[in-house]
């Protein structure tokens, strides 16, 4: 079993390049099923989740060549609409092949998805969208089968702006007959990246990044070359690393418009943010000011950075609060931080933190992907050594995380014990 060990080593300094976004890469790789010619995807992060989704596609018959951070995908070998249970159960995002398979093959067989245990993430909105487009849905023994004679455009209102449902409905609708309108849809930058990718292949998608997306169906999609956007969550994690250690980090390959609420909260905490084109310099302050944070769907404060900010606020000079509105079970990292000495009280969906905690190195567990990042951040300012287990969660979303932190001066190692 691999573990990560961290010892404090003072303020982090230097530069770090942000990888391509996991949450953009996964739906775009899945959507490659729709193509009829070769697709080249650049800046694909080397992550466990990417390995899983590419293997899902290989078992569907697609040919995939990997060269460092580039994938070449030939979708012409697609020969089945039934996914592999073992792979799908590992990762929730693998459910995103449902929409492309339904559009391309007129059928899709999938098991219920897995992933981080951060709360209820029902697939009912995905299925509601497929039904509106004309699909019939059967569910038996944890398996979902969607079939159709043809898909026809429809107006679909999402009860919640679900990212996954928006992506699945988009990829199903691009080959549907007529126009599809998705209302109250997700507005995340990763949705925009998916729309740009689909349009490069010949789709007609407008409105991505707003609450209403319009899709005019086309007969076929071709191929293209596409570069994945930078990972705003990884960028935010290293921005917090500068703030919590009182460091000075130049973060390269970043789109600041994707991180407005994060930048605003870091500045409110006392950090200095200097934007330099595609780079951002973050200079930590000697005193971290307390914050009140409420997670919301984009363009609100991202739930995927809630855990990292909780680590930061253990060091704030005063009482802070975090309200989690997106996932109901996303405070599991609070118990792990409390093992290190953090003073956190969780009631329902609100965490109250008493700052200026002296943290101590402890044996802790990465309860989910972003919790793992938060524990690394807390360990950077703890007394003694911190041992983090269950780090496969971290590997699902961060490329070369120890190397990137070491290059900034962190004392961090990975050991197979």
TrEMBL record:
Location(s), subcellular: Cytoplasm
Listed EC numbers: 2.5.1.7
Annotated residues for binding of UDP-N-acetyl-alpha-D-glucosamine: 92, 121-125, 304, 326
2-(S-cysteinyl)pyruvic acid O-phosphothioketal carried by residues: 116
Active site as annotated: 116
Top-level taxon of the source organism: Bacteria
Molecular function terms, GO-annotated: UDP-N-acetylglucosamine 1-carboxyvinyltransferase activity
Catalysed reactions, semicolon-separated: phosphoenolpyruvate + UDP-N-acetyl-alpha-D-glucosamine = UDP-N-acetyl-3-O-(1-carboxyvinyl)-alpha-D-glucosamine + phosphate
Coiled coil (residue ranges): none
Keyword terms: Cell cycle, Cell division, Cell shape, Cell wall biogenesis/degradation, Cytoplasm, Peptidoglycan synthesis, Pyruvate, Transferase
Binding positions for phosphoenolpyruvate per the UniProt entry: 22-23
Enzyme class: transferase
Residue ranges occupied by any Enolpyruvate transferase domain in the UniProt entry: 7-404
This protein's pathway: Cell wall biogenesis; peptidoglycan biosynthesis
Family annotation (InterPro entries): Enolpyruvate_Tfrase_dom, MurA_subfamily, UDP_GlcNAc_COvinyl_MurA
Function: Cell wall formation. Adds enolpyruvyl to UDP-N-acetylglucosamine.
Family classification: Belongs to the EPSP synthase family. MurA subfamily.
PANTHER family linked to this entry: UDP-N-ACETYLGLUCOSAMINE 1-CARBOXYVINYLTRANSFERASE
This protein's name: UDP-N-acetylglucosamine 1-carboxyvinyltransferase
Organism the protein comes from: Peptoniphilus ovalis
Gene coding for it: murA
